Amino acid sequence: MVWDRILGLNLFPKTVAQKEISSYLTRLNRYGLPLDNRKGYTKLDWEVWTATIAESPSDFQALIAPVADFANESPSRVPLTDWYSTTDAKQVGFQARAVVGGIYIKMLSDSGIWKKWAGKSR
Question: Which pTM value belongs to this model?
Answer without folding.
Answer: 0.87
